[in-house]
Structures are given as structure tokens and as C-alpha cells.
Amino acid sequence: MSIQTVDIKTYSQNLQVNPEMKQQYGEIFTPFSLIEKMFSLFNDELFSDPNKKWLDAGAGTGFFSMFLYHKLNTGLEKKFPNAIKRHNHIIQNMIYMVEIRHENITKLQTLFGEDANIYHQDFLSDFKLPPLDYIIGNPPYNFNGIKKVPTNKLKKKTQDGRTIWIDFIKKSISLLKQNGHLLFIIPSIWMKPDREKTYHYLTQFKIHKLCCLTNTETNKYFNKEAQTPTCYFTLEKKPTDHSIALYDNQKQMYVNYAFKEGDAIPLFASSIINKLQSFVKKAGNIKVIKTNMPSKKSLFSTSPSKTHPYKNIKTCILDKLRPKLVVNYSNIRQVYSGQTKLVLAHKMYGFPYLDEEGDFGISNRDNYIVVERNIKELREIKDFLSTKTALYLFESARYRMKYLEKYAFEFIPDITQLDDFPKDINDSSIAKYFGFDELDIKNIQAYHKKPYECNQ
């Protein structure tokens, strides 16, 4: 089969993943439906320029290059009316592919022909390529083993493979001309500051458009072969202007989002978060402390005794619609015992619990605590964090599967420091105060349909 005879609309993609190749090379295949969405981030006139060079990094069996070929073949019809000359120009002068697996190289050569610029190489190795205007693709996320995710109960963390999508990004940007463009889909975890400094690396460049997919959406596109939140974006190799057009899936539109260096970038609800930013700037955000594991000297029991007299919050679970604290008892006092505090112990939704008397210590990691506030302020914050609005805002920072992240609180104003904030705190009064429009209100109410019984 030749690329000249392929009709993208009717072509049957083989998206079946070989578990061994996924394990060794991180190989999964991208459906045309997603590739089309990714390419929509580009203006169509780009495909009418015959002088640009495009690279498919980690080409696999060629799905990105196939889609690109047909975009170029359409875009260059006026400049190259002769179909054969147009084909030859695209194949010989415009599209470049790099692929590590021999089996895929054979498929690429069959599809694109012997004159195609196909490199049988490890993309991360040293080899010569011409200066590139555009690099596209879905880089492998891991190499020599799949990374452990919370839903994988059979795999040990010590069996993790090496993360290489970051290396692919850095290599790709190094290959681009100045003002060249990158179009990739990668895990969304980089959108918060991280130890590997991937956030700082990427945000030094101009990111034009960015669209996020939840772990559920990602899993659907990749036939359950990918389990992490992802994002696709266009990046230009030039200094950032600290503004990104974020796609707001709820409003079905791009929203210009301004950020400072070190600010997390929301995955969700960018339109509403934009409306909150002036209030965050004025009053600051709600400050929370994320707890760590207890001391190794701590011993725990599920029931109180003379040897385990100290009561602690371990976590929070849902009993149907009612949040229920999971309590244990320790031989020594745990952190925050004796302190008035607000505790968000549910790992997805928080569900604030007001410990007015300081009855509980905290005996587990990844609980969020608000302390050193007077009781009036804690009650106000609790009321706010018990609303559907708060649950909606928590979705903005689902960088790791469905976990509640501390970065979500960076998007939420400290309402106790805002003038004339309503005393009766509910979704309606919050929407009125912050100027949410009818669609904002509708989206907030519709997103979490279950009426959780948050108030203790």
C-alpha cells in the first residue's frame, strides 16, 4: 500500500498494542481522531508552505506522518498542480521520520517509499538531521518498563521503567530552528513545578495553545493503554510571554491565561479560574499544609487503649454520600494534635472537617490542613470548601490521576480576606460575588451530580 492511495477517512488503523513493545519501548499508537484534534492547533496555511521541514519524532508505524502527508498534499495543490511532483516534493523535501524499531522501519518504507526520509535511529542518539521547522508526535513516555500508576496493583515501584518523554522534548527543541514549532502530546504532570524542572524548561518557551485530557479521556483515546492525564500543545522556540491559550472543555473555547514563573497551570476550568485571579492577587490564596508520614516511633491501633490513647485522622472515605473519617489511635501524639484546624482527608474531594477542639492528630500522608486561623475564618473556609464550586475547582489540578493536589488551592482566593464576602456561603452567593456567568453556574452544578453531605 502506498501513501498516495491511502484515504485517511476510511483507512483502518491497527491500534493493537504489543505488550512486549509497550514494556520495552513505550510503544502505543495514536488514533487519527486525536491526531486531527492535535493538528487543529495549527493554522491551515502552514500546510501551504513548500519550504518547511517536518519531523515525526518516534514515528512508529507512521500515523502522524500519514496525517501530515495528506494535510500537505491538500495544502500544496495550487503550488504543485501535478500530483506526482507534489508527492515527490513532500516525500523528498518536507517530511522526515525517526524510528527505532526495525519492524516499523519496514512498514514506513513500504508506505512512504524508498525516497522517503526515514531514519532507523534511537531518537535520543547523535545523528544528523537538517534544520527543522516543525516537530510532531506522541513520544514514548517510558523505556524498559512501564511506570507504576496507582491503579496498577500488580507492579512494584522498584520495577519502574525510565521516563523518557522529557528527553524527547529537550532533544526535539534542540533540533528546531529558532521560532520553530513543536506539537506533542505528553503527560500533564509537567504543568505544576516539579523536581525535574520540566515545568521551568517548557514554560521558558512560548506555548501558544494547550488542551488537556483527563485520565479517563486519555484512556478512551488509547484503548485503555494509557492511564495518565495528558495534554497536547503547540510550542514555539522563542521566549515566553507568560500567556497560554488554554482550552476550556466546559466552555468549548480557548481562554488566554496569564501566569507568573512558578505558577501551576490549570488543567480545567480556566475560564472560571481566570475570573478568580484578581481576587487571589488581592487577598492571597487559601494556604494549606500537606501532611507527611508519621514518625517511625509511632504505633497504631484501630481501637483506643492505655498504650494507644491518642486519637488521629488517618483518611476519609465515602459512606454512600456521607464523608466518613477513618480514625486510628497511637502510642504518641501525632502532628496537629491539640490544635484547632480544618482537615481535608478525602484523597479526591477533600471534604473539610472542622476540628474545633483539636481532638485529632494526623496519622497519614496527603491530608491537607488549614491551621493558625481563628475559628470564624476556619468556619468560613470550611463552608466554601464544602460547595460544588470548590469540588469543581479541585478538578483544575488533577495532575496525577484523580488525587487532590495542593496546587488546586493556589487557584482559590482566601475568602476571609475579601471585603464584603457573603456571610451565607453557598454556590449561589459565591457565583454572584465572583461574577460567574450562567454557563459557569450550569457547569459547576452539572459536573458533580451527587449531593454529597459535606457538612458535619
Describe the structure.
Keywords: DNA-binding, Methyltransferase, Restriction system, S-adenosyl-L-methionine, Transferase. InterPro entries: DNA_methylase_N6_adenine_CS (IPR002052), MethylTrfase_TaqI-like_dom (IPR011639), N4_N6_ade-DNA_methylase (IPR050953), SAM-dependent_MTases_sf (IPR029063). It catalyses: a 2'-deoxyadenosine in DNA + S-adenosyl-L-methionine = an N(6)-methyl-2'-deoxyadenosine in DNA + S-adenosyl-L-homocysteine + H(+). The longest helix has 14 residues, at 270-283. The protein is an alpha/beta fold. The protein folds into 2 domains: 3-241, Vaccinia Virus protein VP39 (Rossmann fold); 289-447, no CATH class. Residues 146-159 have low confidence and may be disordered. It is 27% helix and 22% strand.
